Amino acid sequence: MNTPVDAPKGNLIARMRPLWPYFGAYPGTWAIVVLGAIVGAATEPMIPALLKPLLDQGFQQRSLELWTVPVVLLALFGVRGLAGYVAQIGLSRITNHGLMIMRRAMFNKLLVAHMQLFADKTSSALSNSIVYETQNGASMLVNSLLSLTRNALTLAALTGYLFYLNWKLTLIVIAVFPAVAWVMRVLTARLHRLTKANQDATDNLAYVVEENVLAHRDIRLYSAQASQAERFDRLGDSLRNLAMKSTVAGAAMTPMTQMLAAMALSAVISVALVQSATADTSVGGFVAFVTAMLMIIAPIRQLSEVSSPITRGLAALERGLELIDDIPHETQGTFSKPRATGEIQFLEVVVQYGAVESAPVINSLSLCVHSGETIALVGASGAGKSTLVNLLPRFVDIRSGQILLDGHPISEWDLQSLRAQFAYVSQHVIMLNDTIAANVALGMNLERDKVLACLQAANLGALVRDMPQGIDTVVGHNAMQLSGGQRQRLAIARALYKDAPILILDEATSALDTESERAVQDALQGLMHNRTTLVIAHRLSTVMHASRIVTMEAGQIVEVGTHQDLIQRNGHYARLYHLGLGATAAPEA
Ligand SMILES: Nc1ncnc2c1ncn2[C@@H]1O[C@H](COP(=O)(O)OP(=O)(O)O)[C@@H](O)[C@H]1O
Ligand SMILES: [Mg+2]
């Protein structure tokens, strides 16, 4: 939540314009809010204005009707209160509605953004900007804009009233303005810097807590408590130090402005006493003047503080707009097909993560996979097997070359249609915090019988039967209460449910023990039947069933053939085989 303070300056109005589509949905409400602010400001000078007749007529001449006092006071505060109430509700309506549609736009962008976004931004940074930053930014900006309007109007109304009462005295008061403004500017700037440093320090402190919660086992196992406690203390101490500095700067504000006010007041009183000799001022007029003069301090003070929340709020919302407007969508074509035959061709494919000059992870790779064929990919960890299969649903983009599905370059496919062709089980299973049934039928119509059949096939039937709510059991954060093997079988059930023409298994049984693997193997075998399958295997049993085995090394294919062929050739595959396939292609980073 570090809202940068030194965001690009520039015309505030111009910077606010892009926000209007979100916060300008209710122009009528805006009008009411502004009207409320005007009425509120206009009632301000009426308080000192009431003192004048009260003192002059009520106390000195005794000519004031008694009933007028409560009537006027209640009417004044009634109008004032009503205006404030309506303005606040209106503003809340504008802010919350704008916030809702802005968040919705950000979340929708998250769903279709180019995958690079997730490489560039951490999940906590993204959730922070969608959930908290927009909230803070919007309330900061809208509230400070209202405060700006209200205080500027109040200042104008009070100053106008002062001039009306006694323009000579007002000129004396105005002479003090620059000094007050200067004191406030200096102190506010210092406070602002301290606030920023304070936010950073708070973030750092929170980060230490987060890390220690995450790594609580390791910290105990390696006896790192003392160093962690020291780390926390150091940050805690700097936070305390900054908080004290803020208090010192903040506490000076009030007495210093009051001293300046006292200077103005003594000048005003002296002049007024001199003037009273010439009967220029009445007692009531004098009291009204002094009251209005003291009342003017509050709006000046608030105006001097309003610029920082405006800048900070604007900067936070601009970051949200950046996500909505500047992050590119995934590119796609228009070709679509309900069900592909599953013929895949890789032609001279090159893949690089990151910079153009970095070493290619897939290097000029060509491979043709026929419809219904099962291809096993083997090779050492880091050979590029996962990268190769991730190219198909376009989770990773190619640098050059071409990939065809059913004879059409995958970049020309409509993304939804393209991705409908693949079921994918990887070694990193991610489950949503929803029911088992919803996880299995993810994105599709939920048919309970089909869910049960798929769970049964994935060897999860017994587990689900033992659960109190069966397939309606909520699995928790990433299904953490299930074991690794159970999660993987759940992912297999999901793949079975999707029934897509092409199946990708990236070490899909890595988390299973031999026993459960044997049980799931049947399910997988059934799943592969009549489907194009790319399987990255770590166990021989899967590999031996493949139509062809593709051996990869450093992003290139070094051998292709059946198990028998490749053993006879006594090359890379034979070496991997003798080392024990599992050990070389076991779960990797
Ligand atoms: N998201 C990524 N960003 C950068 N480099 C990556 C990324 N994913 C994989 N790599 C690199 O690409 C190479 C191939 O990785 P991978 O395809 O996962 O290999 P395999 O699945 O064969 O073990 C490795 O050197 C790995 O470090
Ligand atoms: Mg891999």
Q: Which fold does the CATH topology of the domain at 11-166 and 306-330 refer to?
A: ABC transporter transmembrane region fold
Q: Which residues form runs of ≥5 with pLDDT under 50?
A: 1-9, 583-589
Percent strand equals 5-15%
Helix content: 55-70%
Number of helices: 24
* CATH homologous superfamily label of the domain at 11-166 and 306-330: ABC transporter type 1, transmembrane domain
Mean pLDDT: 85
Count of individual beta strands: 10
Which hetero ligands occur in this complex? adenosine-5'-diphosphate, magnesium ion
Distance between the ends: 31 Å
The CATH class of the domain at 11-166 and 306-330 is Mainly Alpha
SSE map:
Layout: H1 12-16, H2 20-23, H3 27-43, H4 46-61, H5 68-112, H6 116-120, H7 123-165, H8 167-214, H9 216-221, H10 225-277, H11 283-295, H12 297-305, H13 307-325, E1 344-351, E2 362-369, E3 374-378, H14 385-390, E4 400-405, E5 408-409, H15 415-419, E6 422-425, H16 436-440, H17 448-457, H18 461-466, H19 484-498, E7 502-506, H20 514-528, E8 532-536, H21 540-545, E9 548-553, E10 556-561, H22 563-569, H23 572-579, H24 581-584
Parallel strand pairs: 3-8, 3-9, 6-7, 7-8
Antiparallel strand pairs: 1-2, 1-4, 4-5, 9-10
Helix pairs in contact: 3-5, 3-7, 4-11, 5-7, 5-13, 7-8, 7-11, 7-12, 7-13, 8-10, 8-12, 10-11, 17-19, 19-20, 22-23
This protein binds adenosine-5'-diphosphate and magnesium ion.
